């Protein structure tokens, strides 16, 4: 164990939409199967301000995505990690059940299996931008019943991707942080990603693998997608998940229907318009195999299967990062502002001003 301080600085919720920089928070307790990570950088997610604004837990540390170095190792960790190992991952910040463990802090506790090794080719600043999107990708692939990523390990038996090869998959919101990672995963599986975005992000989205890009603001967007895919689109990820985007996605899908997966709860009213489309939405906060104590449809019991799925997914993903086969979303790194600059970034994101990049802060 490295020499650890007794207290840390952390961003703590003081009321709806309000954070304060607490100067002497206790370090998070870490269980025998967890490591304690000294945080180097954090990245912002829309969930950070949604939790803060809509389900405020006063006194809880905010933040999900982080990167850093292993500072202490529990006695019962499964993944072999050494002190100083560079890792990235995400924690469930603003969590009423674990208010002392959020990413916007100097230390976080995390199960060893959920630590993603950061290869030498990737900086810790860039690594901080990826974990939520990488883990969300595992849920999306499962929800859409697509084959998992082939394991690049030397001895691993390559999985067949025949059911995916040449299949169109629409990523609505191709310029989101989730979208650019998903399009790369889809390409690796053998699918043909197509995407929507603003015209200003068309080149970016193409760079991440979209075979064709559509402007979601165009009144003919759905019709254009349906024509382009010759009425054969049967697989959609909606990274936005509003009634407007769900409606567009439903209209874009072929006559035979298929699978629609959203990152937010879907509308039952729109679902009822096309029974041949199977609608689903995912919630990646079950990754820890622990209860998700949120209101209404967001509440989840502990789901050990999700923890197991993501642990296995991470070992595969690490090889894609190490070989550069999966590249990070563009980042905007704030090296000087530290924890104190994050609230301004959250406000920027809250106002919908973040486009085609991830905001990262060195701590
Ligand atoms: N359920 C889960 O487990 C889970 C996991 C991860 C994320 N999420 C949710 O998924 C959503 C996306 O998260 P993220 O971090 O990937 O997003 P992000 O990177 O913050 O998304 C920003 C992008 O959204 C795009 N966008 C905005 N409105 C759009 C629309 N109507 N159609 C298409 N694109 C639109 C914009 O693209 P342009 O600039 O091109 O306009 C912008 O670049 C958030 O609501 C987040 O909370 C949920």
TrEMBL record:
User: Residue limits of the Enoyl reductase (ER) domain?
Assistant: 15-360
Q: Has keyword Disulfide bond?
A: no
Q: Which GO terms describe its molecular function?
A: oxidoreductase activity, acting on NAD(P)H
Which keywords belong to this entry? NADP, Oxidoreductase
Note the subunit structure: Monomer.
Q: Which family does it belong to?
A: Belongs to the zinc-containing alcohol dehydrogenase family.
Could you identify this protein by its name? Answer: Alcohol dehydrogenase-like protein
């Amino acid at each position: 164990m490295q020499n650890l301080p007794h207290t840390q600085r952390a961003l703590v919720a003081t009321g709806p939409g309000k954070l304060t920089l607490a100067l002497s928070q206790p370090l998070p307790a870490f269980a025998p199967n967890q490591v304690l990570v000294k945080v180097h950088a954090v990245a912002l997610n829309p969930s950070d301000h949604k939790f803060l604004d809509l389900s405020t837990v006063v006194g809880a540390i905010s933040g999900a995505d982080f990167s850093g170095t292993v500072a202490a190792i529990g006695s019962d960790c499964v993944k072999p990690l050494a002190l100083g190992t560079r890792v990235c991952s995400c924690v469930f910040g603003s969590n009423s059940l674990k208010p002392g463990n959020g990413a916007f802090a100097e230390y976080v506790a995390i199960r060893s299996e959920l630590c993603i090794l950061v290869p030498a080719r990737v900086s810790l600043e860039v690594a901080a931008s990826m974990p939520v999107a990488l883990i969300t990708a595992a849920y999306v692939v499962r929800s859409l019943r697509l084959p998992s990523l082939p394991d690049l390990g030397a001895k691993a038996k390559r999985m067949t991707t025949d059911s995916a090869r040449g299949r169109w998959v629409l990523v609505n919101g191709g310029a989101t942080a989730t979208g650019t990672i998903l399009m790369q995963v889809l390409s690796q599986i053998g699918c043909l990603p197509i995407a929507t975005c603003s015209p200003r992000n068309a080149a970016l989205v193409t760079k991440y693998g979209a075979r064709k890009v559509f402007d979601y603001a165009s009144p003919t967007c759905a019709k254009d997608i349906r024509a382009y895919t010759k009425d054969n689109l049967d697989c959609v990820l909606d990274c936005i998940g509003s009634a407007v985007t769900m409606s567009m996605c439903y209209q874009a899908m072929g006559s035979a229907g298929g699978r629609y997966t959203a990152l937010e709860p879907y509308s039952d009213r729109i679902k009822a318009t096309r029974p041949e489309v199977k609608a689903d939405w995912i919630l990646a906060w079950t990754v820890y195999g622990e209860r998700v104590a949120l209101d209404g449809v967001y509440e989840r019991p502990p789901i050990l299967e999700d923890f197991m799925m993501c642990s296995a997914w991470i070992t595969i993903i690490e090889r894609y990062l190490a070989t550069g086969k999966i590249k990070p979303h563009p980042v905007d790194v704030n090296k000087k502002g530290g924890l104190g600059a994050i609230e301004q970034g959250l406000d920027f994101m809250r106002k919908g001003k973040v486009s085609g990049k991830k905001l990262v802060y060195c701590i």
